[in-house]
Amino acid sequence: MDTDTLSPGNESGSWANACSIETSDGPEVVMVPVAFGLIFLLGMAGNALVIVVLGRTKAKRARSTTNIFILNLSVADLSFLLLCVPFQATIYSLPEWIFGALLCKLVHYSFTVTMLVSIFTLVTMSVDRYIAVVHSKRPPCNRNRRNASVAVAGTWTLSLLTALPVARHQTLVSGYHRAPNCSFCWEVWEEDTLKQVYKVTIVIIGYLLPLLLICCCYAKVLFHLHKKVRNMSKKSKRSKKKVIKEEMINQTVGRLCYRNKVILAPMVRVGTLPMRLLALDYGADIVYCEELIDLKMIQCKRVVNEVLDTIDYVASDERVIFRTCEREKNHVVFQMGTADAERALTVAQLVENDVAGIDVNMGCPKEYSTKGGMGVALLSNPDKIEAILSTLVKGISKPVTCKIRILPSLEDTIQLVKRIERTGVAAVAVHGRRKEERPQHPVHCDVIKAISEAVSIPVIANGGSQEIIKEHASIEEFRQVTNTSSVMVARAAMWNPSIFRKEGLLPAEKVLKEYLTYAIRYDSHYSNTKYCLCQMLREKLESAQGKKLHAAQSNEEICEAFEMNEYYKEVTACLEIKRDMLNAKCQEKLEQQPGDNGSPDVIKMAIRFNKRDYPPQITPKMTLLEWCRKQKLPQPVYITVQRPSDRLFNSVVTVADRNYSSSCWDKTKKVVEQSTAIVCLQSLGLPDGRLCEGEKHKRKRDEVIAHDTETTSSASLDTNKKKSLSLMKI
């Protein structure tokens, strides 16, 4: 120890008294505690506000990597304020350290730990921003809650270990004649050399290296963003700075940015999950799903498919309407066909947590879209366009866009796009053809360019596949010709998705097999798989392989045409094993419903509910509930589960501490719960309300009579209408 620097000696009591007297006077006795008090109050209020805001954020957003790091930073700051600031303030206002040797060590140890945690967290956030911006095309698997939590745990562990020498050598010192306080905390080291080594180490790992790493990360981010916009022709420096700022904000808050992107266009039967994932693999920044009609989506239920590790939106007839997965969550845009603002909002709120953005189709000229007032039919109704987009922008947190075609006149088109811009949309995609024009007609690049120069939001150019886009380099050529922010590729990507590869197109054979790999992995319907493969084969459809594909009636037969039989068998076997395991777990959960003593006790019968066997007003569930009330028993409790393999339901009802279930599975919850109620009633020897044969025939006859009456009435009305029309003509 350096005795000249600090040497606690056997000073006289008179010196201690003098010390006490000296430190009791002076303005710092008041000013320092006040200053520390303000720091404490402001710090506590600010960090508490951060935690409250994060707590009120939607669950999925609150668990984002950025928010996890912000929360960790707030916790470190609060720890510093609570464990360090009040004690440090007493050094200037009290003549001695009054909290004892243990708190002396704890306070200074906490001071060092919280300082290092804050520094390391800032470094981690910088690396996270670097990954999010510079490597945004890569799979988002590295930026997830688990890895963020591991990083947070790592910062605390490293900080706690690094600060251990402070706790080890912090000592309560008293009676030092050069000190203003009678007793104080000080680091006392046996060897001064070790102390200097530790101090230098702290400076390096706690200041120099973090500063260097933070500077490198943000330099890379700025360079990457500048590189993206340096090719923007005829844009002022102010516009470039605005674009950089906008993209940095979007990346920071996790919103999808539509500037300088290469995008897979929405295509019916093509834009399903396998094609979207393949496009992302090849370098697409954003992928759109095929247009999905709002009326169809409203009827869907969200299902977590544990076999495929996907999120499925399943219709009432058990068809999967939309399927997505974690891999594309930050890149997929859900495009809907709609003609009603409220329906559009309902669908958007249904899917917004599983997608990166919402798009409204206003450019499809096909009859199935226009006959309901959707697609290109919306272009003739600007008021409805404004209502739909404004409702979506206000009602959801994800960015909203739309895709349009150009109108007959340039002035009308620009006026419409400006009106769309005022709704608050994040971008607008423009197909450079009129509603009556088809791919054989030239794309109007000049109109797209005029639109781009007339508005400030990103404009996405679309329609260049036939004339301009033939390889990756020509995507940039199309962007420059139209002077737009981004480019959307449709048919060129359908023919060969490797159009997104900067390194160049891949052979069709390789692309076909990679697409088929995803199609089998994610259980794509064979008709969609077949359609996409036919579009990729194009002129080779007449080859032997093309004829095999054309004749195929299942994914297995398609795999045979491409000599991928072994892969098909391997994947289907793995999926079957996973499905069986999940079914077994589901069945175990159903059968292990606790009885009186916690053991399985389920009375089962093979009974299926048929509504024709019961009066419409009185169902088995109602009969069972009424009986329980009369017996003064708790009302029946139904526990219904769904089997992942086929999405069928089964139910267990608990009545008087006994469990009852039907061994029959059904596709609706209502039917299985009614079946379960019948099992319970029959087991208890109670009537279940079933109609007798005579009553069944009477009900059937009444239904027929009612139907015939309705038909006759309709026919009479039609006849009267025809007569009225004839009289009007006369």
CATH superfamily of the largest domain: Aldolase class I
List segments where confidence is low: pLDDT < 50 over at least 5 consecutive residues.
Answer: 1-5, 7-18, 20-24, 231-236, 593-599, 696-701, 704-717, 721-730
User: How would you describe the shape?
Assistant: globular
Q: Write down the overall mean pLDDT.
A: 82
**Strand proportion:** 5-15%
The Rg value, from CA coordinates, equals 35 Å
Q: What percent of the residues sit in helical stretches (DSSP H or I)?
A: 40-55%
Q: In the CATH hierarchy, what is the architecture of the largest domain at level 2?
A: Alpha-Beta Barrel
Strands across the major sheet, in which order?
Answer: 3-4-9-10-11-12-13-14
- Main beta sheet: 8 strands, parallel, barrel
Per CATH, the class of the largest domain reads Alpha Beta
Oligomer: single chain
Secondary-structure class: alpha/beta
How would you sum up this structure, described in words?
By secondary structure, the chain is an alpha/beta fold. The chain is built from 27 helices and 18 strands. The chain has an 8-stranded parallel β-barrel, surrounded by 6 helices. A 4-stranded mixed β-sheet has the order 15-18-17-16. It has a 3-stranded antiparallel β-sheet with strand order 6-7-8. Helix 2 runs antiparallel to helix 4 and helix 22 runs antiparallel to helix 23.
